[in-house]
Amino acid sequence: MWGLALGCAVAVGLCTASTAAQSAPVEQVRAAGRAVDFTGAWKFALVNKTGEDAPQPDANDPAWRDTRLPHDWSIGLDPVEGPHTGAGTGFLPGGLGWYRKTFTLPSSMAAKKVSIEFDGVYMDSEVYLNGVLLGRHPYGYTGFAYDLDAHTDGTPNVLAVKVRNQVPSSRWYSGSGIYRDVRLVVTDPAHVTRHGVQVTTPDLANTIKSGYATMRVATTAAAENSTEAEIVSTVRDPRGRIVGRGTTRAALAAQPSTATTDIRIDHPALWSVDRPSLYTVDTEVRVNGKVVDRVSTRTGVRYFSFDPDNGFSLNGVEMKLKGVNLHHDLGALGAAVSTDAIVRQLKIMKSMGVNAVRTSHNPPSPEFVKACDEMGILLQVEAFDTWRAPKVKYDYGRFFDAHSSADVREMVHAAKNSPAVVMWSIGNEIPDSSGAAGPPIARKLIDDVRAVDTTRPIVMGTDRYRRVPAVGSPQDQILQMLDGLGLNYNNASSIDELHTRYPTKFFFEAESSSSTSTRGYYQDPDQLNTGENHTPGKRNTSSYDNNLETWTYSGEYGLKKDRDRKWFAGQFLWTGIDYIGEPTPYNVFPVKSSFFGAVDTAGFPKDFYHLFRSQWSNEPMVHLLPMNWTSHKPGEQVSVWAYSNADTVELYRNGKSLGERKFDTKTTTYGAKYLETTEATGDDKTVTTGPYPGSYTSPNGSAGKLHLTWSVPFEPGRLVAVAKRGGVEVARDEVRTAGEPHAIKLTPDRRVVKADGESLTFVTAEVVDRAGVVVPDADDLISFQVRGGSLAGLDNGRQESAENYQAASRTAFNGKALAMVRSGQTSTAITVTARASGLRTATTMVAAIGGRPGRVQVTDPAPGTPVAPPAVDASYSGAPGTIPAAMLDGNPSTYWSNYYLKRATALLPAVSRAHATDWVSLPVRDGLAGSVRASFLADASHARPASIAVSYWDGSKFVPVRDAKVEWATEPGKPTSITFAPVRSDRIRLELASSAPGTAQGFLGVSEATVGR
């Protein structure tokens, strides 16, 4: 469909409605091409947020709103707790919506075949033309089309689309509505059918040795009345030059038939991840010498192999799949497709060293496939997250038996000409695959794929092969049918066992790691796994690659496991980018996005991004963590890590060297060089023998880490890492101590944009001090104003947030926020202004090309509401039921505690280690405080604090009180009394030191606490 000629002129006029509420535009379609963009001049009405069935609102109902497609109604709603929302889908409602479009067709189309194509509607859609049902399409991720028997005499036609998203219909945020493109297709009675051109390059691995490729073009066409036709295919190279032509004859009839021609292409430019060269095939249907239809198809010339012993190769060059999983949401845009947003995401992934994407767990948009074709990113395209057995109440399992065959074929047809696609996946973590129903379903899906395409292998992603399946079991039968298998979270020994048992199948990691992290948050660097902070407002996870659920493992473990096995084709990290929904490890409002990404939802890299960049990118780099060199106490020991692809890194603090750290150069058993330290890692309890028991051990007998470490006493100033190769500096990174927030800094990702009403500019807002250093813990509320365009969405990458994605203001998170700005059509410039109370205002400008004169559109910021500090707070709460509010509820049986127990993983033991210190803060009711009474827990896990330090909030920071005295309780359950010189404040903080840090007995707990005069 990318070859469709989009040259049709569309004129939009207005008709007078019976009420002011209904001023419905009528699109007057003029025939000037094969395809007509049909995304403008729609009306939308959200009938309910529950998904209950309901009729279309009356045409004059004030609920109708002007809408342009693609459109996701859920992303503009507030996240809420309720019976029709949940953490899995980001607390954003679905519901029932109706779309309506009025249009006229000219009389010249009376003899034409007219159809409407939808690339994706989520979900359970019904399409009506002039009140007549055209069809129903339940799956939200595949395209579909209907023929239109529309008026062509000037009478208005009304197209209505009913969309029903009953939540939960997915395990992640799906979006709701007509969220992908829509077009009219206008052809003569003799025409190429939908998806009717297929281009392949048979035997390319051999013909390329002789300097040519055979491009086989199979064209499926039909005619309402039988006719003889000539089908001509013309091939153009990446520079637009004609390099080949083929002609074949076809007898066309109402039943489509396929004609094939072979075209020789001499010295073709091969498509690769580094040079994604694209060819165009122009296919014409000629009847009696007249061209009656023309379709353009983009494709590439390349060959690849998945070898069970040697892994993946592209054009004869062996390489690892350095892949990521990506869900389809685009952050603050939700599911609504935007080419600019897709390209931005993929550019960020490419900069990490990524060369492949798995479309988890559904077919992607055509825009996504097109971007991968153009950017050189390999694709595994996946069909389903569920077969017959559902995973959530309203998912696709309801429709699988009736619709899966058509949907999987549609998936293949839509992307069959893409050079980026190298695998088809028939499902992810399918419950049916373990039962008797699994093999017959798998057989049918495999046959459906091969009915369309026989050139690519068929796989599935699975968590059900962590042990070798029994001979003849459903898992064994399915694997025997598949070409290869994508494993989800298998340890190193299990993949070796599978490789031995199935030597003719290829293996890769369909989901690797699932280590969770929050940008800019750090905890327990000396631990391989650690607990979560359940304090409201602080629900984050550590960026030291050390927050792991029971089924997951660290990023470093996955990288080493993949690296050490030539036969292992590669991995797809779970995930490249945080996505809305599935906020593991938290399941509480308002935590609404995942923690799995190497990059957050705003597109800001986390430390995890730099780990993978150090292993996947050849460009010299070094990255320091923590990225926060501000929020520490003088003299505090800080664990400093460096990720680098250089062998040596030297660390400097305020110009003084703190020493070099070096990686050892090692060699895999198949001869590949790599960098790694040599030390016990302790990250694989399944290893019980050898020189490094309890550690991941490479087949060459070594163990080590993929990062370098220093323990550095904190001193304000500048920390600099200098990476060296052969003693010569090749890269550096630095972190600086920030002062007080002073100003906002705006940085757009481009300086020129098209004034087409669709193009996006991504503007990063940073809170900086007077020296321009980003303040790493700044959370100022920033309001945005746009002239010459509009705000498309705001984000900050924070997982725990109830802010609306499409509001006009957003709090900074760890110093940053993002504005997505949509261009207008009536201005030559877009101006973005950002304001925050107490900070210097910032303005940036982007040139808009092609704008026409008219009134400049202005988006004014809505008044923002700063987030009030909590009445009671704590640095860390170890469990959902032991949060700070429990200290004030008057119930001595409830309590705040920093106790946590992190469950064992497949590779790591359970962990429960008390922090050295934590703090709690309490409200001062009348503004004057001179004492605190606190009842501390003392039991098998909790002990009385070793010491207590008291401070008060002076309006900008916590300041120690004077003359503090502690009178410890002499009996269990009795309060400890703390007195101090009276202070005026609204908050008192108690910093509590553990009496047994690092043990399971030194945790802290407070059942009741009060502040007095």
UniProtKB/TrEMBL annotation:
Residues 95-185 form the Glycosyl hydrolases family 2 sugar binding domain. Residues 526-545 have a biased composition (Polar residues). InterPro entries: Beta-gal/glucu_dom_sf (IPR036156), DUF4982 (IPR032311), Galactose-bd-like_sf (IPR008979), GH (IPR017853), GH2_Domain-Containing (IPR051913), Glyco_hydro2_dom5 (IPR040605), Glyco_hydro_2 (IPR006101), Glyco_hydro_2_cat (IPR006103). Keywords: Glycosidase, Hydrolase, Signal. Residues 744-844 form the Glycoside hydrolase family domain. Residues 516-545 are annotated as: Disordered. This is Beta-galactosidase. It comes from Lentzea atacamensis.
